DNA sequence: GTGAAAGCGCTAACAA
DNA sequence: TTGTTAGCGCTTTCAC
């Protein structure tokens, strides 16, 4: 270890003022003579002074740190999401703190309870993680924005994916490309019309609802066999599904997958069985991960602009943080999408 | 916002002891009667008490936070790396803090200088980022472990990828599969034997050296035309390279790419030109990202066990942190690899 | 425009 | 086994 880091006091002594004046000068507050400020800045520079965040936030109650909570880092979707959110947080002069919960509700609860969320470790949280409940957030009383929480009447601000419209557009695209027997690959079980018309709190049922409406509107079948259920959102589950579908000669000519990794897995699984995409069956994904632009075949997808989403989410959060008296109302925003047609639906 | 978070004092008043006793009880320190501790824990639980990390570390000089610094989050290689490192840090009871520098040396320098690295915000840093220099680290005086810094005689502990041996094995694998005219796809410009025999401070030249030795040992050509230079490590650069190679009828029958994303890009670029992998040319990558197991074709690669790497890196860092008097010596570890043969070199 | 006083919540060191 | 003292480095408040 080096010598102790320089403090306000060190600078103050050199300049010949009090620590208070140095603090004001460094933070650019009014009420400091220009010449004094210049001297302070010079000495701070020379001593390589950095404010001690712990002390600063202990007193001020603000850390400038925004927590970004997600299920995992490796799924390309999440890698892109944390990237976009981190950049946006920094663009606002704040520091992003990433945390992952591994899809576990206990882990999420633990993260909310952890010492790092007490006191003033974080000024706020943006979460896209299983088990982060409204109740928990309200209890904590901390500024929070939920991503894709899809609750009908949220008590917490949310920014949502275009689940219904996006899935609808994806299926319509398959139909436009000539598909007449379309399978929906999802973690959500088959749901009948009544179920689907109800509101749901996770995105998959909402996406399924969108897919269904496109099928019905085009006079195409929607029944239990058309919903292919998988147990997770990564490639392996897509591969398994493809193997099952090929082995049972399912006979679909197009598939909408609830995310791109599933879709890439489906394509890979079909390749194992000699089923060619798009020659034999067509496949479209959801999210618009970059890998879909480089796969063989390239992947058609319902693409969401994560930069725009991040901007809205951080904006909402800052509004909460900066509102002194909690005099804001929760908002629910749904972002737009673009249908990207690539080789997998050609 | 809710009512103010409970403090040690609140608990102390309820239990009828001093904050000091509460502090000891909560931290499990000796010298507290079992019955007192029980009472304290009960009240802490009921009040939903969480220690204030800022205050705690302001006083103790330890934050329990380990910084993980990388160039980016989205490249699958980095997504897997931060995942493994985060898990390992948590396994040791510490909190990971992720930071990205975007390959920019200024950004890295800024990150090292930032307020969050002064005082006691981080207990230590593990870095795999361009521009994190030994000099900067030594100047900061903070415990640090560098990943893949490949300096010959490091003043800072490093954990390195098996660059030379891995690249050598990759090329040997291509040779074993019948390749006789092998191209090396790398960001490093062609370097003659003398250049390559010198020590270098980034991994690409070292990998190139390993590739070269395999070629030479097998009596195969190694000259400027065999080194295909790209300007980055992502898929697009691989695609560009493939287009160039196909358009100029380069005539190679096998390629070693310096990472898997380049290799996947190469395969995609060849697909654009009707060049089939592995039928027409064979391709092997480096790192062992999971996407390589799900691509079409699946990707052969020199795979590195990131969990093992993370374990070593965190272990080294903890040794530095826990050594009170800096009485440790920097170490340089090289982790092992496994050659995974998949469809792309069949 | 500058400074003095006070204390954020916690813990190391020592006293009782 | 428990308590007292003191202070980490900073910022808020208010006096000058």
TrEMBL record, chains A, B:
<dbReference type="GO" id="GO:0003677">
    <property type="term" value="F:DNA binding"/>
</dbReference>
<dbReference type="InterPro" id="IPR028082">
    <property type="entry name" value="Peripla_BP_I"/>
</dbReference>
<feature type="domain" description="HTH lacI-type">
    <location>
        <begin position="6"/>
        <end position="60"/>
    </location>
</feature>
<dbReference type="InterPro" id="IPR010982">
    <property type="entry name" value="Lambda_DNA-bd_dom_sf"/>
</dbReference>
<dbReference type="InterPro" id="IPR046335">
    <property type="entry name" value="LacI/GalR-like_sensor"/>
</dbReference>
<dbReference type="Pfam" id="PF00356">
    <property type="entry name" value="LacI"/>
</dbReference>
<keyword id="KW-0238">DNA-binding</keyword>
<dbReference type="InterPro" id="IPR000843">
    <property type="entry name" value="HTH_LacI"/>
</dbReference>
<keyword id="KW-0804">Transcription</keyword>
<dbReference type="Pfam" id="PF13377">
    <property type="entry name" value="Peripla_BP_3"/>
</dbReference>
<protein>
    <submittedName>
        <fullName>LacI family DNA-binding transcriptional regulator</fullName>
    </submittedName>
</protein>
<keyword id="KW-0805">Transcription regulation</keyword>
